Amino acid sequence: MDDVELRRLKWNCRRGMLENDLVLERFLDKHAQALEGARLNAFKALLDFPDNDLRELLSGRREARDQELSDIVQFIRSC
Question: Residue 44 to residues 12, 36, 78: CA-CA distances in angstroms?
Fold first, then answer.
């Protein structure tokens, strides 16, 4: 991932819900280099979710139906 893409991802991690901001930005700060290929695509797809749905996924109150999304959510939760 190049610097431009990383900055774009960091910008997209800024959400309307502070809880999501904190989780996503901290995750990206620690694990940006681990995001590539399918995992990176899943993370980008996750950022397209509305804030409330994203919070439900990240908190474990709801599970992702797609396996790749489920994998990235589990990775984020484990951090």
Answer: 9, 11, 18
pTM: 0.91
Tens of pLDDT along 24-72?
999 999 999 999 999 999 999 999 999 999 999 999 999 999 999 999 9
- Cα–Cα dist 48/52, whole Å: 12
Tell me which residue of 25, 35, 20, 26 sits closest to 72, measured CA to CA: 35
Round to whole Å and give the CA distance between 2 and 65.
Answer: 30
The CA-CA-CA angle for residues 19, 57, 70, to 5°, reads 135
End-to-end CA distance of the chain: 20
